[in-house]
């Protein structure tokens, strides 16, 4: 197949630190190439890949980026997989999948895809498809022996529930390391900073080997989100490292942990109780095997290719006349 993958213009592919969407695009690109497909990647400047060709956006303006894609899209592309949104909303005369990595999708997108069945049902109104995220197993360090600290990894905002992770740490008396981007200073100053000290530390943004080591050495990862998480990539990253991750039944969390119900919690007290009774939870090797068989980049690519074939075989894409794509292309060609 000849496949065009559209990434965002926010973070290069692959990302150095934070960048879940861009990492998914990277995994998919590399695995599709390994399987003999021609892949054309559109991504932010500084991106690198083994794609047949990588096109780097020349502008930060979305309209100009769409024009750039229209001008550079190779001929005879079989399918476009858009992780950005600008192409799927323009409705090109080519089968185009619009991948949503958050809760919503635009009604103009003909083939919307979500990262969990929960999001497809609740926010997609069952219109479209669900394909789970995947990770490359070799990107994560696996350890069976753990150190005596718990880890929170994510953005420091209220809906991520950092304050609840702190509550669990105090209830169990265990050390907590908080790592992630500080997105809400008011929340940080009122709910996090007053509790920092010897047992509760904030170490800032982490990525690369530092992130891998924190995940692999933690006794637990606390996933305390209080909103409808579309998927929860940290859940998978933790288990791939052999580290039990405890999460609330919100959004796609229960779906990701469907085969590991022991890791689901009702309250912070329930979470603290599970921390105190580690022996009742799955062993490190079982956690990693769970990820390999459900959420690896291999499984991700298998699922995506099945969807591509379904779209192409069943004519799910209906060509629309006078689309934004056609109007922009006509303007670029000087036809109007």
UniProtKB/TrEMBL annotation:
Could you tell me the keywords of this UniProt record? Transferase
Q: Name one Pfam family in it.
A: Glycos_transf_1
Ranges annotated as spanning the membrane: none
Q: State one molecular function term (GO).
A: glycosyltransferase activity
What InterPro entries does UniProt report for this protein, alphabetically? Answer: Glyco_trans_1 (IPR001296), Glycosyltransferase_grp1 (IPR050194)
Look up the coiled coil feature and give its residue ranges. none
Which segments constitute the Glycosyl transferase family domain? 145-258
Please verify whether the record's keywords include Ion transport.
no
PANTHER family in the cross-refs = SULFOQUINOVOSYL TRANSFERASE SQD2
Name the UniProt record assigns to this protein: Glycosyltransferase involved in cell wall bisynthesis
Species source reads Paenibacillus catalpae
């Amino acid at each position: 197949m000849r496949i065009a993958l559209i990434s965002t213009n926010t973070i290069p592919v692959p990302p150095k630190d934070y960048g879940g969407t861009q990492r998914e695009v990277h995994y998919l690109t590399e695995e599709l190439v390994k399987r003999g497909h021609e892949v054309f990647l559109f991504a932010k400047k500084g991106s690198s890949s083994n794609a047949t060709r990588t096109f780097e956006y020349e502008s930060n303006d979305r309209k100009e980026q769409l024009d750039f894609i229209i001008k550079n899209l190779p001929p005879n592309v079989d399918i476009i997989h858009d992780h950005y949104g600008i192409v799927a909303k323009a409705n090109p005369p080519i089968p185009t999948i619009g991948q949503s990595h958050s809760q919503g999708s635009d009604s103009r997108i003909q083939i919307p895809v979500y990262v969990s069945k929960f999001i497809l049902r609740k926010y997609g109104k069952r219109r479209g498809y669900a394909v789970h995220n995947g990770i490359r197993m070799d990107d994560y360090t696996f350890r069976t022996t753990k150190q005596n600290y718990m880890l929170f990894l994510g953005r420091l905002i209220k809906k991520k529930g950092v304050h609840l992770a702190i509550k669990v740490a105090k209830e169990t008396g265990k050390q907590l390391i908080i790592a992630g981007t500080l997105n809400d200073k008011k929340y940080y100053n009122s709910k996090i900073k007053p509790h920092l000290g010897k047992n509760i530390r904030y170490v800032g943004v982490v990525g690369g080997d530092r992130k891998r080591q924190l995940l692999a050495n933690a006794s637990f990862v606390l996933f305390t989100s209080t909103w409808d998480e579309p998927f929860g990539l940290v859940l998978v990253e933790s288990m791939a490292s052999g580290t039990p991750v405890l999460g609330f039944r919100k959004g796609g969390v229960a779906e990701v942990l469907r085969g590991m119900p022991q890791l689901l919690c009702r309250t912070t007290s329930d979470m603290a109780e599970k921390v105190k009774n580690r022996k009742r939870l799955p062993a490190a090797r079982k956690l990693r095997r769970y990820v390999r068989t459900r959420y690896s980049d291999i499984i991700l690519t298998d699922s995506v290719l099945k969807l591509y074939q379904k779209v192409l075989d069943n004519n799910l894409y209906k060509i629309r006349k006078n689309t934004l794509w056609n109007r922009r292309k006509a303007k670029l060609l000087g036809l109007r």
